[in-house]
Design the sequence.
């Protein structure tokens, strides 16, 4: 087979390769068949859909987290902006957010305290205003935090529960917090990051 110019496909494409040889074509078709065989049975999909509902998220988001972490998410950690908290004399948590979180099952709730707030005091007030069993809180690092600062922040939230990072998904207000959330996700080796607007959409 003679060589011919090839057009580069975009990142993440799923198009078949140019037929450089029959061997390349065979191996691509084999890989496609093996990938299809890895799809979970419908009974497993139904179980995962039910678990996604318990975690308050869509099935596509749950499946992506599960593929990345290789396990079921055991908890969610929220940035202050993700919870849409209003800071006044007393914390204010929107009713829709509280109702959404109240429906979760078998899920640890963790939060990051706003800048300038002592995590312990913030956690106590958050539990009080939400009437929800938030397990831990840690200081939200700034966008200028060092790598060690990011690691310390995320581990301060996780270590009291003795959870690996892969057991947690981070809910953040994207795209405004995209950079800091990506840093925290990498520093804590978390399962992934979800946008708060997408996550809380069913409650709204």
Sequence:
């Amino acid at each position: 087979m003679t060589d011919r110019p090839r057009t580069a496909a975009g990142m993440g494409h799923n198009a078949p390769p140019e037929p450089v040889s029959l061997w390349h074509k065979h191996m691509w078709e084999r890989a496609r068949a093996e990938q299809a065989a890895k799809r979970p049975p419908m009974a497993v999909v139904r179980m995962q859909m039910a678990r996604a509902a318990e975690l308050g998220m869509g099935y596509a988001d749950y499946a992506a987290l599960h593929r990345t972490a290789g396990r079921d998410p055991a908890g969610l950690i929220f940035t202050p902006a993700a919870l849409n908290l209003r800071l006044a004399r007393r914390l204010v948590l929107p009713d829709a957010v509280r109702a959404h979180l109240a429906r979760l099952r078998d899920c640890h709730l963790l939060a990051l305290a706003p800048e300038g707030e002592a995590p312990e005091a913030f956690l106590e007030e958050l539990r009080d205003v939400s009437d929800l069993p938030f397990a831990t809180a840690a200081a939200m690092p700034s966008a200028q935090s060092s790598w060690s600062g990011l690691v310390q922040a995320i581990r301060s939230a996780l270590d009291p529960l003795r959870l690996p990072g892969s057991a947690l998904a981070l809910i953040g207000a994207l795209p405004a917090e995209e950079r800091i959330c990506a840093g925290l996700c990498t520093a804590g080796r978390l399962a992934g990051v979800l946008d708060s607007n997408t996550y809380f959409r069913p409650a709204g």
Observations:
- DSSP finds eight helices and five strands in the chain.
- The longest strand covers residues 108-113.
- Residues 1-14 have pLDDT under 50 and may be disordered.
- The CA atoms of residues 68 and 166 lie 8 Å apart.
